[in-house]
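User: quick one - fold this with zinc ion bound?
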Amino acid sequence: MDILRELSAQQRQLGDDSLGFADLRRRVDVEDSGRFRYHLKQLQDTFVQKTDAGYRLTHAGHRVIAAILAGTFTGDQSLGPVELDSECPECHRPAVATYEDGRCLVSCANDHTLFTWSVPPNATASLDLPGLIDLAELLALQAVEQALAGVCPECFDPVSSQIRTAEAARPAFQGDCESCGAQIAGPVDLCLLVDPEVAAFCHRHGHSPQDDHVWESPFVRDDAELVVLDDDPVQIEYTLTLDGESLSGEISENGHITVHRTGSTEGQSDAP
Ligand SMILES: [Zn+2]
Ligand SMILES: [Zn+2]
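Assistant: Sure. Structure tokens for the protein plus zinc ion:
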């Protein structure tokens, strides 16, 4: 761990990312050269690479030490509960945020879960709980965007996404990475939130996915309707109505929005 930490510090301080054997040993402060060589050897090729100029971190080495420095494996910070300037769309009680075990949770007094997402513990050093929730929402939307694009937001390997339907529950988006085990999951509304045409429609009617909380989006309130047309393969029709104008379309089995139609609630649809 100290070897990785020193190589990382070297790169950050000097922009020169290699350290010679003797310098590295001195900085890690191990007297016994044979013992130091043994430990270095354990890291070599996977986390540390030997070059003509000395030793440097590999991509995996960077990722591992970044996670360690961020407190991902060690942080046990917990925050809250704190009432947010928002309410539960279901029961209209105040939205309450907590942060525990690296996870943000927004819920209400009636235990309706409005939002949950992981944020590394180091983010708690500079953000208060409402700020942490904003960050968690940004990370969630970016993760869904990446998963929809077929890329794992954690390890960048290919990831497959799908929409799951179950009776009496809102359809859910799920992306699973077989390489690193990451799971990106949430209500299907997240797929609508990251869609540019849906965002433009909402914007025209005074809603901004950037300013509203995820659980406040027009989809999760009464304004949006989701109809499961088919379970296998999944096909969902959504209709979003704001100020008498509607946007409708289809959500495919992997969460992509395939068609958009606009119209007015008076029935004068401009769809062909
Ligand atoms: Zn509630
Ligand atoms: Zn992955």
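One thing worth noting: The pocket of zinc ion (ligand 1) is lined by residues 88, 90-91, 93, 108, 110, 112 (CB under 6 Å).
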